[in-house]
Amino acid sequence: MVHPVMSNEFSSQPTLRDLFRNGNFVKFWTGQLISYLGDRIDQMAMIAVVSAGVSRSVGADHANMITFWGTLPYVLVSLFAGPIVDRFDRRKLMIVLDIFRALVVITLPFAISPEHDARVIYALVFLIGCATAIFAPAKSAFLPEIVPSHHLLRANSITSTMGTLTTLFGTIIGGALVSILARLNAIAHETMPVLNVVRLPLGLAVAFAIDAATYVVSALLLWLVVVESGQRSHVAERLQEVEKEGGFFLRLRDGFAFLLKHRIPALAAFTVSWFFFLGGAYFTLTTKLVYLRLVEGTEQPTLKLGYAYGILGLGLALGGIIAGRIANTIPLRYFIPLCFISAGLFIQCNALPLPPKFLYLVNFAIGLTAGGVVVTMETVMQKAVPDAMRGRVFALNNLLLNTLLLGSLLAGAHFLGENGTIAARFGNIDVRIAIWARIICVLSLIAAGVAFVGFQSNVTIARLRADEHN
Description:
By secondary structure, the chain is mainly alpha-helical. Helices cover about 80% and strands about 0% of the residues. The chain is built from 17 helices and two strands. Helix 2 (about 25-50) packs antiparallel against helix 5 (about 120-145), helix 2 (about 25-50) packs antiparallel against helix 12 and helix 3 (about 55-85) runs antiparallel to helix 11. The longest helix has about 30 residues, at about 55-85. The radius of gyration is 22 Å and the shape is globular.
């Protein structure tokens, strides 16, 4: 079981210079930085494809569905992702998945166009998401293989910061790229007939090409990671141990059993999953607000969406940095409830009669709280779960959080959508926005209460370790 124990880890937390002296971490971090940037550009290009030729409100609904279909694989594939991550060499598995995603993405400019049924676009988003649903737990489970245990909090903080900063720059760059190059499409196709084989506007085709290139770079950097001999021996032992444990569903059962028996990692999984549930609900809200309050006339919505998502990413990045510096010794029963309460109150601000651009400030504040929760809870799980179980537990956690995220995305899209019984009953979209913001706020306060009761007063990240007999 997991014991709160005294540790000197806080005193040995690395500086950024210490962490970046680890060549393997630098390669891993750089590859994910580049890959995340491409993902965000790809996301904005997909939204631009499904938003072409429709009203702003319908475009917002399509944008939310892009997120839904990108999230669905995490629910369906996560059942098998954990055993796959534990059965195979995680570094090689991630390389294969990067190459697969690059091949799918590079074909998009030749295979789809804005005239396609939106369901075709959703199917391709789903296919890419299937590979990403396996890559995500593999990445989380691989990090402890190249980073010492007492460096994990800082490494997770930096990795989370990297991901969220690329949300900032990637969405802004992607939105701007699509908007700017859209003006050059006609000239480009007239002067370069070879581009006629590309079925998408040039701006979208370039965005997809950049995304494919980032996956290739990520695969190359992972290939350059050299796992130390002692760690390779440990990995070989893990693979042999997993091989003896039976089939997929037996190992999934073991993962569930582990969480049922160990309160702290189970509570961490619930906490971060519930935050993702609230995040999905808020994502539908902020997308709708951007289309209705910030986009003017026939303006390209991807630029304003890029700003809104990007500023949310900036908050996440700073929240991750702050958590990495201060959360190691703060009792979790105080730190986590504070994050939930703050997020709920900030979300409620969207129901107030404030200037439209105030949405950017709200997104930044919410990002700060989310960064703290994600970094601390992932570190708790990495420290409290033995290596042989880590892939299964992270995959099950991804299954839980993405199931809740998926449910909240569907609920938000239905409640704020232009069609359906909710719209017919409440009519005015401003009324529905106010109600949805209040619902998210109440759920945040409930989560704060659960975290306060669940974590003991002496539980901090610095005092956690996984019992070697687990």
